[in-house]
Amino acid sequence: MITLFGFGPGFGLPEISPFVTKTEVQLKMAGLDYRKEQARPPASPKGQLPFITDDGETVADSTFIRAHIEGKYGFDFDAPLSLQARAQAWAFERMIEHHVYWALVGARWVDDANFAKGPAHFFDGAPDHLRDKMREDAQFRVAENYLLSGLGRHAPDEDVDLAVRSLFALSVQLGDKPYLMGNTPCGTDATAFGAVAGILTPFFDSPLRARVEKFDNLTAYVDRMMLQYYPEFGWAPLQQEAA
User: Fold this and answer.
1) Strand intervals (E) in the chain
2) For every one of its 243 residues, what pLDDT tens digit does the chain have, with 9 covering 90 and above?
3) Which of 97, 129, 104 is nearest to 118 (CA)?
4) What pLDDT sits at residue 3?
5) Does domain 1-77 have CATH number 3.40.30.10?
6) pTM of the prediction?
7) Residue 175: left (phi > 0), alpha (psi -120 to 50), or beta?
8) Start and end of every Thioredoxin-like fold domain (predicted)?
9) What is the CATH number of domain 82-243?
10) How many angstroms separate the CA atoms of 68 and 236, rounded?
């Protein structure tokens, strides 16, 4: 059986990491049996989550896990998309993972109030004399990566503006369809869902969340995907909250 290693539930979400969420939803899409275990990034061969073990083979990084599922189990996440639609789906996935994701990171880690409410608690189990320093160092490292991503080089309102332009593109692509590319979910839906749900979780307040909540089709999309893939979680519908 496949074992998926992730962070686990938190921040009002069934899984903290949008990348782990992506892989978990894709495992569900493929109808594969799996079990889930909590881990921390140093346990992974690539120093990041998720990773899986499958019959003694370890595969790290969500994109390579998808390729492993497709190759070993013959599941096509993008059926029945045309070649052009597959290319478009890939382009949206890259936009989400290399742009939208970093906006989420900024809202969680760079915003001091959200950091104190959320990621700072990753270090609650550290020794008393090291805890504050570990929190400070971790926030600094993430903020440095946020800067290197490009978004962190802009003023707070400017980085949100840029992120919202990408989310607007996602909203336009979704339109009134149930899924990004049509009437059936594809691999990129798992990616989009993980990132947008991570932004919209009511656990964190941020200017980014406030702006994204105005895209009614994205909030409905997150509600729909959550009900479909995590029916046991008890997600409070975002549209209901907005009302």
Assistant:
1) 2-6, 34-38, 51-54, 57-60
2) 999 999 999 999 999 999 999 999 999 999 999 999 999 999 999 999 999 999 999 999 999 999 999 999 999 999 999 999 999 999 999 999 999 999 999 999 999 999 999 999 999 999 999 999 999 999 999 889 888 888 878 877 888 999 999 999 999 999 999 999 999 999 999 999 999 999 999 999 999 999 999 999 999 999 999 999 999 998 988 865 555
3) 104
4) 98
5) yes
6) 0.94
7) left
8) 18-114
9) 1.20.1050.10
10) 33
Strand order in the sheet with 57-60: 34-38, 2-6, 51-54, 57-60
- How many Cα atoms are found within 13 Å in the side-chain-facing hemisphere of 104? 24
Q: For residue 127, what is the DSSP state? A: -
Closest to 52 in 3D by CA, of 14, 16, 23, 22: 23
Pair 70, 76: CB distance under 8 Å? yes
Q: Report how far apart, in Å, the C-alpha atoms of 221 and of each of 15, 175, 178 are.
A: 17, 10, 7
Write b or e for each residue in 117-143: b if 16 or more Cβ atoms lie within 10 A of its Cβ, otherwise e: ebbbeebeeeeeeeeeeebeebbeebb
CA-based end-to-end distance of the chain: 43
Q: DSSP 3-state assignment of 184?
A: coil
Q: Which residue stretches of 127-215 are H helix?
A: 128-149, 156-174, 187-200, 207-212
Residue showing tokens 């045309």: 82
| Residue ranges of domains in the chain | 1-77, 82-243
Could you read off the pLDDT of 139-193 as tens digits, one per residue?
Answer: 999 889 888 888 878 877 888 999 999 999 999 999 999 999 999 999 999 999 9
